Amino acid sequence: MAPRTARWALVRHPPPVAAPAAATVGVLLALLLLGSGVVGVRDGAVGAGWLHGAYWTRTAAQHIDGLTPQVWMIPIGVVLALVGVWWVLAALKPRRRTALALQARSAVWIRPRDLAHLLAATAERVLGVAHTSAEGTTDAAEGFDLVQQQSTWGFELDQNPAAHAAEQPVQ
User: Fold this and answer.
1) pLDDT computed for residue 136 by the predictor
2) Residue 43: which of 60, 68, 26, 24 has the closest Cα?
3) Do residue 49 and residue 114 come from a single domain?
4) pLDDT tens sequence across 45-99
5) Residue 43 lies inside a defined structural domain of this protein
6) d(C-alpha 85, C-alpha 91), whole Å
7) Which of 27, 61, 102, 109 is 20 to 30 A away from residue 43, measured at CA?
């Protein structure tokens, strides 16, 4: 039997991902369900005699009961249908990756923003680089602005100091 570490090394870990797009829809539906529960509890309290007043659900049902088709209902129906399609598409949409995989024996991930900061800090250690700034996306760390500086000896420094930054170990 193979050692336990070898067996676990073969397990592929899923990448870190953002919250699903349908999370907002889920929160809205949960709040709507919570509100209807509050109305139900209130109507139950009225029915038990703990509160005085009319049933809210009965009053709403009576208002809806006598409705006949109106012109304004068509655009409202179309909008509600489009919202429903949008919610279904949000539920089916794949989640966005939030980190990049590093080459390691275990699942090691780094956020693009942190990778960009690491690359910028490494590039700043190169002789002649006065300032760096970087921003990262899940596709690549990009947006390096390397500001060159003339050395005290009077000659221009290397045109691509970031290339040398990759050769230096990060401490």
Assistant:
1) 67
2) 60
3) no
4) 999 999 999 999 999 999 889 889 999 999 999 999 999 999 999 889 998 888 8
5) yes
6) 10
7) 27
